[in-house]
Amino acid sequence: MSSLSKTEQSWRDSAAKVVEEMFPLTAQFKWDELLDLRQSLLSENDWKVTLRRFVSCREELEADHYLPFYRLRCLLCAHLRLEGVSGYELRNILRRDTLMKALLRSDAKLVEV
User: What residue segments make up the domains of the chain, in order of their start?
Assistant: First the structure.
């Protein structure tokens, strides 16, 4: 049995479903990255790991899947909180790859709300 609350699991399941919707329209050689992102969204507790996978997939696939990545960004913003960084909101950071990569290199923490 999962140690996650129903709310935590619910939004994680929704995020995983968004990723699953991309499989039929994505070349099979890119499925491993999507599978890693899906698994990370479902069970990873280190949100920087999940964000790295999100960035990697987005760089590769966003041109063909803009709407699913937008939906994922909205889910992440609604359910994660940024700690240790002032002057930036998570939703603004997730819109820009350069800011997101800087966040991943920083000491900032992402926590589930």
Answer: 6-112
